[in-house]
Design goal:
Blueprint lengths: L1 H19 L3 H11 L28 H11 L15 H10 L1 H7 L6 H5 L12 H7 L11 H11 L1 H29 L1
Helix pairs in contact: 4-5
């Protein structure tokens, strides 16, 4: 009986310790897939990750933030409110959308994170889904961070009506200038 209790306590300690450290598998995958150097700030408040005593790291948390951290860690299933004091909005969105159980399972297959997130979330409203920004190694919280061609295409698509009127106006202006030139040329003949 004593051995079983020690085994259970040991398993609980290992499980808790595993949850304290960051999940570098996601960072490494995104970096390999995109070829872009990525720090922990893709998901964490602190670019150095969750471990340490600086702002946004576990060692800096007061009792209230520690309670928020524990509540976020307990969000095992999707759809629960997540307000983790060491994660940024993208990190919180991942846990809220998928649940901690799925996030923990995806550690062995970080390529599965993007399909699991889907294309419904765009936290920075730049027209590039957060899952795509994870794959591209860009910042899902910065509307200026993204592959330039995607950003340009999304911005042009967002202003298609204005661009259409601008091209029509430019065409009419050129047409008018050509007519004026032809009229001046005929007068001088």
């Amino acid at each position: 009986m004593h051995f079983v209790r020690l085994l259970a306590i040991g398993a609980l300690c290992l499980w808790t310790a595993a949850r304290v450290v960051a999940f570098p598998e996601f960072q490494r995958y995104s970096q390999r897939h995109s070829g872009v150097s990525i720090d922990c700030a893709m998901c964490h408040i602190n670019p150095g990750g969750p471990v340490g005593s600086e702002f946004g790291q576990i060692g800096s948390l007061d009792a209230q933030d520690q309670a928020r951290l524990n509540q976020a860690r307990a969000a095992l299933n999707p759809g629960q409110i997540v307000d983790n004091p060491i994660l940024n909005a993208f990190g919180d969105r991942i846990v809220q959308s998928l649940g901690m159980l799925t996030v923990l399972q995806l550690r062995s297959d970080p390529a599965g994170l993007a399909p699991a997130l889907g294309n419904v979330s765009d936290l920075d409203k730049d027209g590039i889904p957060d899952a795509t920004e994870y794959l591209d190694g860009t910042n899902p919280l910065d509307p200026e961070s993204g592959k330039p061609a995607l950003l340009l295409g999304n911005r042009l698509a967002g202003h298609w009506l204005s661009l259409t009127f601008a091209f029509i106006a430019l065409g009419l202006l050129l047409y008018g200038l050509l007519k004026l030139r032809r009229g001046l040329v005929k007068e001088n003949e």
